[in-house]
Amino acid sequence: MKKRIVSTLLSIVTVSNLITGCSSPDIRTASGAPNSSGISNAPDITNEYNPSNVSAETLASSNADFNSALISYIEQNGFAEENYMISPTSYRAAMALAIVGADNATKEELLHAMGFNDMNELVAWYVSVTESVDKYNEWLKDAQKDFKENREDYGDGASKPSGVFDLENSIWRNTTNATGELSQDYMDYVAKNFNAAANNVSSDKITNAVNDWIDENTDGLIRSISDDLSASDLILINTLYLKASWKNDFDEYCTEEGDFTTIFGDTVSKDFMNQQEEFLYYEDDDCKFVVLPMNGGINAVFILGDATGVMDKMSEASYEDVAVSIPKFVTETSFSQNELIGFCMDRGATSAFNEDADFSIMSDEMDLFITDIIQKTKIDVDEKGVRAAAATAIIMKAGCAEIEEVKEFTADQPFTYMILTDSETPELLFYGQLVK
Hints:
InterPro entries: Serpin_dom (IPR023796), Serpin_fam (IPR000215), Serpin_sf (IPR036186), Serpin_sf_1 (IPR042178), Serpin_sf_2 (IPR042185). GO terms for molecular function: serine-type endopeptidase inhibitor activity. By secondary structure, the protein is α+β, with helices and mostly antiparallel strands. The chain is built from eight helices and 17 strands. It has helices spanning 56-79, 88-100, 104-113, 119-149, 184-194, 206-217, 310-313, 339-346; strands at 10-11, 13-14, 84-86, 164-174, 197-201, 234-245, 256-261, 267-283, 287-294, 298-305, 318-327, 329-335, 368-381, 385-398, 407-410, 415-421, 427-434. The strands form two sheets. Strands 1, 3, 7, 8, 9, 10, 11, 15, 16 and 17 form a ten-stranded mixed beta sheet that branches. The termini are close together.
């Protein structure tokens, strides 16, 4: 079963971690004055970009194209018949950190590969991500305050509202291998705008240091990104972690064992969560989907059938009384076989991965290029909500590269799912499928 999503969602991403502050970041150029193509010729981080120049319609369209292209590429390269989940947000955000450090053709190619026409669009997208993080954290703060002040109104079995929506970034320089230093301007810039600290670690300690940092920032969902990072010169890391509860919990006593038909036609047993409530629901000859709201401005969308154009159909969905039956599941995925590099190259970004790379803004002492992009994800869905995490690492070296009736939604067959923000331009935090 082929599933494609053409959405108005924003995507996340990869190599570097994002800021979680409560105000819009002060984004500046990674270069000097841009030329007519929007690409600078001078490695100077000085000029400011203005994301307000980018309309919501422009951003939604570019995000839809990027998300659709990424999901299509992943499924065409070994994952069409596998359970998987990818984080477009973590991928795109991490690549933003590399783009900031790139110049000339390398910068332009990576911008276009990530679905941006220029830095203004990248900045506008980034600001929208941080706004969604802020919205969630503001909800959590208010909910916890209300719980404290009105504890007697919550009932004996109530617990304090909890959750996490966090984006983090870090940079790791291998002091044993690296022959030069990072630009101070670059380090100051990413620290201010991406909250990304640069760490200097020897080759015998860098693997454990990076993996421990990822483990901590994903609350143990992702324990490591690689077993051996000692040969790398520079690593850019992004993590995305979400722990969100359903607005309407699934009662555990309603969970029952049932049959799930896999993509191959086999029948396997799974534990199905069940509830009947009023949810946004849509159905046509190609698909049906239900939107399950989560606390803090997050939605989970479960799709049966063809997922193409679901976001276009969202405006046609209506609130219906829906009997929902969804299996509990845990999915772990690793993109570590050059899938994410292949996606970039398929979209015209080639110079970043060979000796032609220009990361001179990042460092004029090292001829850096990208040797690998790795993403690991994990999602755990149960009666209380969703825990999901992504870690994306961009590994760099200096040298030469190798390359009104009650509706029913019973997900007892292969289905697609999305975790997205409930905002004007929804951010696609996670996208996946369960097929077996």
